[in-house]
Amino acid sequence: METREWAMKILVPVKRVIDYNVKARVRADGSGVDLENIKMSMNPFDEIALEEAVRLKEAGQAEEVIAVSIGVPQATTTLRSAMAVGADRSILIRTGDDPHADTEPLAVAKLLKAVVEEEGVGMVMMGKQAIDNDMNATGQMLAALLGCSQATFASEVSLSDGAATVTREVDGGLQVITISLPCVITVDLRLNEPRYPAIRAIMDAKRKPIADKVPEDYGVDITPRLKILQTVEPPVRQSGEVVASVDELIKRLRDEAEVLA
Ligand code: AMP
Q1: How many A from CA of 240 to the centre of ligand 1?
Q2: What pLDDT score was predicted for residue 132?
Q3: Does residue 133 register a pLDDT over 50?
Q4: What's the CA gap between 167 and 188, in Å, rounded?
Q5: What is the per-residue pLDDT across 155-185, written as a single tens digit (0 to 9) for each?
Q6: Of all protein residues, whose CA lies closest to atom 6 belonging to ligand 1?
């Protein structure tokens, strides 16, 4: 990663995941969540990262926003949405046609590192986690591979003099840190409220370029290292019960649930 002053590029990795409103069902063989004919959308944390990157560009603090997605060819749709919101161009790294073959965080991080180096990116703004596998690992791995600064769980970001000041959501409060650029920032829910693109922007996005790549173009081996042994539905929640008084509640918590001494 080059150290740059302003006029910098921001890379936003956007993952195509099961839509957050869809009730996930486990495949019959327990190998994962069924994604056949399921509505897919941009990972919600990536929408927030993208919004922040576009705002930085609109504020004149970035020169270009590049979206990148790693996965099936249908991720093109995710990239078109990213460009409708304001990304200038995109890169699709095709990993195959099977929607159930997820690329693991380490492989994603290696591919992103290659893109960062090829493009001379000054900042990677990305989701803190993908809602399909909840790994919360890719950003941290990418920063480690690049040997650059990182700020995770951002709820506020500002830039000045080649540094980013980031408010982080940590257990029990907020932490403010300053990191030098180039850097990786992973974003949390409260950073901003992503916009809905206007029809005009959706139409314009159709003309923006998408570079078509495969992992071999970057010399990265994406062979899985993890093996999923089993995926199960969460246990069904038992219905609640209304009790007549606080005394009865305490008695039952003590005698039946045995959670009070
Ligand atoms: P994870 O570590 O898998 O929870 O993902 C964290 C973040 O890494 C996501 O919010 C995305 O910004 C990025 N990411 C992970 N997988 C992909 C992918 N296949 N394509 C693009 N970005 C990804």
Answers
A1: 37
A2: 95
A3: yes
A4: 10
A5: 999 999 889 999 999 999 999 999 999 999 9
A6: 129
Q: Collect all residues with Cβ–Cβ distance below 8 Å to 250 and sequence separation of at least 6.
A: 260
Would the CB of 14 count as within 6 Å of ligand 1? yes
CA 12/CA 49 separation, integer angstroms:
7
Compute, in angstroms, the gap from residue 65 CA to the centroid of ligand 1.
17
Q: 71, 56, 153: which is closest to 104 by C-alpha?
A: 71
What is the 103 CA–ligand 1 centroid distance (Å)? 9
Evaluate: CB of 45 within 6 angstroms of ligand 1.
yes
Give Cβ neighbours of residue 216 (< 8 Å, ≥ 6 apart): none
The predicted-structure confidence for 208-261, as pLDDT tens digits, reads as follows: 999 999 999 999 999 999 999 999 988 888 888 899 999 999 999 999 988 988
The alpha carbons of the chain give a radius of gyration, in whole angstroms, of 21
The pLDDT assigned to 261 comes to: 80
Task: Please give the model's pTM, rounded to 2 decimal places.
Answer: 0.91
CA–CA separation, 139 vs 128, rounded Å? 7
- Buried (b) or exposed (e) across 132-158, using 16+ Cβ within 10 A? bbebbbbbbbbbebbebbbbbbbbbbe
User: What span, in angstroms and rounded, lies between the C-alpha atoms of 205 and 73?
Assistant: 17
Indicate the top mutation candidate among 108, 124, 128, 140 to test ligand 1's pocket, ranked by most ligand atoms within 8 A of CB.
108
Q: How many CB atoms lie within 10 A of CB 199?
A: 8
What band does 7 get if pLDDT is binned at 50, 70 and 90?
low
Separation of alpha carbons 136 and 8, rounded Å: 26
